[in-house]
Each structure stands twice: as structure tokens, then as C-alpha cells.
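Justification of computing resources. Each target in the renewal requires a structure prediction run like the one illustrated here; the chain below, 82 residues long, is used simply to show the kind of job we budget for.
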Amino acid sequence: MTRISQAAATLLTTLTLTVLARVNTPTATHTGPPGDRDRGDVPGWVMITVMTAIMVIALLAVFRGQVVAAVQNAFESVSNAG
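Resulting C-alpha cells:
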């Protein structure tokens, strides 16, 4: 494992654990009407989107060259087939 990939793995692990810790932290007791208990909380889909974006950025930071080469090969094979 290279220094860059090790640093990216450490960063990704730290970010993931931080997000999970924040999600699992209990919130203050709710004092509003019973119908709007979830209002003001970050919805689960937002957290999933943010975590996915963090993972994509971390993976691209490590494997940028391989991703660019794979996309170029895919475009070349499509243009050669047509």
C-alpha cells in the first residue's frame, strides 16, 4: 500500500467513523407536537448521499489514473465498434 492510498484509507475511515458517531448520537428530547418529531433532523438519504460522495472522492484521489484509463478505453471501444 502506497503512502497516498494509506493516507486516503485513513481519511476515509476517520470520516466514516465521524459520520456514524454523529448519526448515532441521541438528540435532545422533543418538546413539539407528536406529528413533527422528525422535523429539523437530517434525513437518512442526505447522510447516505454525503457518505457516498466522500467515498467517491477518496477513491478518485487514490485511483484517478486507473479510472481515467478505464473511461478512455471504454470510449475508444465504443467509437471503434461504431
